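Usage

Read records sequentially. Each one opens with the input sequence:
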Amino acid sequence: DTYEIGWRQALFDRKVQVTAAIFYNDYSDLQVDGRAKPGRPEITSALINAKAARTYGAEGSITWRVAEPLTLAVNAGYLNAKYTDFKKAGSAVLADFDLDGARMVKAPEFQLSVTADLDQPISDDWRLVGSALVSHVSGLIWQYSAAPGVLPDATSPGYWQTNLRLGVKSVDDRYGLSIVADNVFNELHYTYGGSNPFGTFNGNATPRIVRAELTFKY
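and closes with the structure output:
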């Protein structure tokens, strides 16, 4: 069950757009990755149900058309996510746990992004186009440990990432050539993680990549 109240407003002759929302979500039987007991390495993956969980938070954005070719935007979100009834004991293969009141997995508390988009005509046929994205995601828990006190939880620290793009595009959007740089500052962060009887692990995200991109639409 989802409840949300939102607000949207155009300001300053529609050059600024503001949106905001608050929300509450109530979950029953949410699917979560289970954890095998130590000594049961044959159990590599399991899906179990969290009887009850809830999230609430807020999100908002401001978009500002600074000038005809340049638009700036800020997006931010806050999430409080917890299990309210989630425990298991006595299973032959799954680890005992009691996560009532614990933070939900894969649920960062804060997210933020700042963007700048450029679209400037440079001739009758071509435009200069570009974008910059700076984003932040706070730390999260991928999976709780199968052996608390012995093995750590699988977690990911918060991180910042910057992506840049600059190029030219035809006025009809049919042709384009851009130079793209992803993860400009080569920030180490993770895209997944987990906990099993052998320990915890994280999967690295893509490191810095600079590439040329040619597009053609037909």
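Summary fields computed downstream for this record:
- The first strand starts at residue 2 and ends at 11.
- Residues 89 and 96 are 5 Å apart (CA to CA).
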